[in-house]
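Many introductory courses stop at the sequence. We go one step further.
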Amino acid sequence: MPEQDKPTRRTFMATGAAAAIALTAAGTTTARSAPLPLTPTCVDDDDTPSNIEGPYFKRNSPERTNLRTTGVTGVVLSLTGFVYTMKCAPIQHALLDFWQADDKGVYDNTTFKMRGHQFTGASGAYVLETVIPKDYPGRTPHIHVKVQAANGPILTTQLFFPDNLKAYGMNVAALNRRDRYLDRECEVALGPLVGNRYTAKFDFVIE
């Protein structure tokens, strides 16, 4: 397929959830009988890009989908998506372990504030309720995550935000330009700011 004709990851992110719902409604259980829309990842047989773990990962985070625990403030972020194989089949019971800075750009390394893990459901879906992390010296706002299918290799990566994100007075476009670890392939699809809340979508593709 010519490069210009390949659908983009962002196109898939916009249509993948609808496709998965349609498949579920039709009683379809495998991508083989009714393939999901292809992405460059699926065409190229490649996975979501990895990124550095950084110095703040902690093992044994609590199992939870909501990181907005007592004392957490900031611009709310509702992040949803799916975990797929490289052939676009949803992965049930995939592990996702998230950790991030808070609305002041600080990691809590004493407790498990702004940290948590969860597992995808039967459809491969996940949902994370958190806040937009603030930047800190050398880094644009980002969320760390480890993703793993049962007995599979661990993907360690980071999620980033588009230049038009508005939170805490940050100039995200400038911060993105300066961050050496920024990967646009791992940029979430961000909805509009409604009140104090953003919605966003990102689908992981793993081995």
